Each structure stands twice: as C-alpha cells, then as structure tokens.
Amino acid sequence: PCYGINTGFGRFCNVRIPPSDVRRLQLNLIRSHAAGVGEPLGIEEVRLAIALRANALARGNSGVRLQVIELLLSMLEHDILPRIPRLGSVGASGDLAPLAHLSQVLIGEGQALVDGKWVSGKTALRKKGLKPIQLEAKEGLALINGVQISLAMLSSALLLSRSVVDAADVTAAVSLEGLLGSVQPFDARIHEVRPHPGQSLVAGHLRSLLSGSKIVASHVDCDRVQDPYSLRCTPQVHGAVRDAINWIEQIVEREANSSTDNPLIFSESGEVLSGGNFHGAPVAHGADLLAIVLTDLASISERRLEKMVNPDTNQGLPAFLVDQEGLESGWMMAQVTAAALVSRMKIFSHPASVDSIVTSAGTEDHVSMSTHASEKSLECASLACQVVAIEMLVGLDALELRRPLRSGRRLESKIRAIRKVIVKRKGDRFLSPELEQAAELIRAGTTVVP
Q: In terms of domains, do 140 and 171 share one?
C-alpha cells in the first residue's frame, strides 16, 4: 500500500483502495475536504496561493501530471480566483480545507471570481477557454498537502512590513525633529560596539535623514541630558524588528521553494516516502514573530506621537498641536485611535503556534495553527501601517510649528514627496481620509529610506 495513492486518508490510512476507485478517491478527497467557512480570502492572497502551490508541485516530488500545474498557471494568467473561505485550517496536514476549495475549480466545481463576478468553477474555466481536469492517482492529495494559504498570507504581511519599517524610520526622524531630539544616540560608534545589523542600519538611516538639520543645530546646547527611550532607542527597536523580518523572509523563501507534499516521490531511486513536510511549524513560528515585532514597532511609534501632542512633553508646542486651545481638539482623537490600534495588536500578538489541538481521530495529534498565525501577522502589518501613518501626520504638523527652521536635506525631500499627496491643513476637520491617505502612501512605498 502507498498512502494517498491506493489507501484512504488520515484515520483511514490503512484502508486499501482498489485500482478501479483511484480516480474517485481523489475526487472524493477534494469534495469532502472543501469544508471551510467564513468570508473569502483576499484577492492578492488567493493569487499568491495559486502561484505558490504551482511552484511546489513543479519541484517534481508530488507525482502530478504537467497539465495540473499548467491549469493552475492558466488560472493565474486569466485571473480565475477560487472562492476560498478564510476559516477551517489548522496548518497540518497542510491547509487542507482552503486548498481543497482552491482545487475545486480545477475540476469544474466550487466558485471563482472572474471579471468581477462570482461564478461556478466550471463556468469560470469555460469563460476563459479552459477545461476542467480529471484527477488521477495522488493528484487530489498533492493539491491540498501544504501550507500555501498560510504562506500566501505571511508573504503579503512580509511585503507590507518592509514598507512599514522604512516608513517608521522616516517618521521617527520627523518626530525627533518635532520634539527637538538629540542625534547623539545615533552616533556610529555607539552601534559599532553592539553590532546588530538592523540597529546599525537604522542608526545610519537617521544620521542620513537628519544630516545638516538646522533644527538639530538650534538646540545642540540645550540643558536636556537624554531623550526618552522612544526617541533614543529607535535604532535598537526598529533594528530588532528589521532583523526579525530578515529571518522571517528566509523562512518564506525556503518554504516557497520546497516540496510540502506527503508522500513524496523520488524518481532517482523510485521510492515513495512518507514524511511530514506539510506541517506548518516554520511558517507559524515566523508569522507569530512577525506579529510580535510589528506590535513593538507600533507601540514605540504611538509613544512618539503621544509625546508630540502632550504639552508636558512636546517641548513648547501647543497641546494636540491646535491653533486655538479648547475651541479645537486637533490630534487628540487620532492619538486615541493609535492607542486603540496598538492595543488590538497586542491581542493579536498572542502566539497561535503554541495552541495545538488534536484532529482526525488522533491521527493528526499536533498541528501548527499556521493559518491563524499568518492571518494575525497580516492584520498586524495593516494595523502597524495605520499607526505609523498617524505618527507621520502628527510629526509633519509638529515640524511645521518649528518653521522657518529646516530639517536635513534628505528628510525635507521625503516631506515634500508626502506633501504632494497630503497637503498641509489647519483647524479641526474630518481626519479619517487623511489617515487613510497616509497609510496608502506607506503601502505604496513612498516613504522608503535613502
């Protein structure tokens, strides 16, 4: 017997399946495992999942025909996007339920989004001149064994996180200028004696952005000894986040180029080996860490923006940066929003990967919860983007109140790019559109560091 080829699945792994039922076995697997619930995954995550699954199968250890991979790629080319419910996977034996929903469309079942409309899987293929396939031995199992749904969400989170950490460095420089902070903590010698790569990189970013600042020069001889941690320790915190993201990126790259099926077929020796490459632990651990470090990044960002609106800490600026105290509220509620978002992120920072549960009548007795972890990481990336966006807007207003003094040339260049989209405004107004605009600038990579 060979698992998944001529046997049942999970608890039924010891049940032999006759050759006459091999095709039916694979069809039944897809149909029975498409048991997800909830709202559908986002379009970008579905596209990524299709590409990642095709790439895993193309490595040649899964025993599928070329036409299976070609149909997946054709779906991607024609933007045929299966409806994949968000809930129903525990991340071992892979993302079974969501990948079964993805695979339904290949056999002409399920639903897919085509040209902006939800249609049946069969109709979706027909509209683009494609035909469903009939699954042969092992192919149904090969399509659903792996954590490509988890990996797609983590990949999306990672891409957004890269933009967020760049924006956080630029925004921290703006806040430092608004708060008349010192550049001494970014001296290269400090970071050479504690040579974490990310820490040194961020310190270099801040030195570059603030070089030549007239604002810094204006208070170089002030009587303050040290700045608060949220300013002084920016390289240490932002840098640690960057180092974590680099480590997570390695996990994503390895996982994206791995064979995650079970059993695996090794054509050189003609052997079929059962293993556990479908287990999502690497993805889950990486996703949990990403949620944690993004929460820390958002936390220090919120502390800086709070100091800018607080008259006890903002070095002589008006409370909440208003023109008319009492009559106007300024950035008061935006800071509350940032605090609410950070608090929400703290909830999402609880690791999912430690919360295993037994499934499949005890056969699958340890699972990764990689889908939960990855979904949390994607949510945290989005929330961190919003928090840094709020700090950016508050910092820009604080900086305006320091005029006519100018910051460093590179930072002023960034400010001009932002102001092309978000113009300077005064007085109380509807803030939500500005907050969304700022977040969109970050997502688009407008605030990349020099």
A: no
Q: Which residues of 308-335 are buried (b: 16+ CB within 10 A; e: fewer)?
A: bbeeeebbebebbbbeeeeebebbeebb
The model's pLDDT over 260-313, given as tens digits with 9 standing for 90+, comes to 999 999 999 999 999 999 999 999 999 999 999 999 999 999 999 999 999 999
Instruction: State if pTM tops 0.85.
Output: yes
Tokens of 446: 């407008």
Instruction: State the residue for tokens 């700022």.
Output: 438
Q: How many domains does the chain have?
A: 2
pLDDT for 450: 61
| 197 phi/psi in degrees, rounded to 5 | -55, -45
pLDDT value, residue 2: 86
Q: Is 229 a catalytic residue?
A: no
Q: Is residue 359 part of a domain?
A: yes
Q: What is the CATH number of the domain that holds 345?
A: 1.20.200.10
Is the same domain home to 318 and 390? yes
For residue 7, count other CB atoms closer than 10 A to its CB: 15
* pLDDT beneath 50, residues of the chain: none
Q: Quick check: is 450 in a domain?
A: no
The enclosing domain of 119 has a CATH number of 1.10.275.10
Domain holding 338, by residue range, is: 151-443
User: Both 155 and 142 in a single domain?
Assistant: no
Segment (H or E) for 214 = helix 214-218
Q: Which H or E run contains 281?
A: helix 281-309
Does 82 share its domain with 196?
no
Token representation of residue 101: 């929903």
Residue 351, helix vs strand vs coil: coil
Of 3, 207, 405, 417, catalytic: 3
User: Could you give the CA distance from residue 83 to residue 189 in angstroms, rounded to a whole number?
Assistant: 54
- Helix spans in 193-233 (H): 197-210, 214-218, 229-232
Distance of CA 76 to the CA centre of its chain: 21
My answer on whether 84 and 207 are in the same domain is: no
Cis peptide before 228 (omega within 30 of 0): no
pLDDT (tens digit, 9 = 90+) per residue, 181-220?
999 999 999 999 999 999 999 999 999 999 999 999 988 8
SS3 265: strand
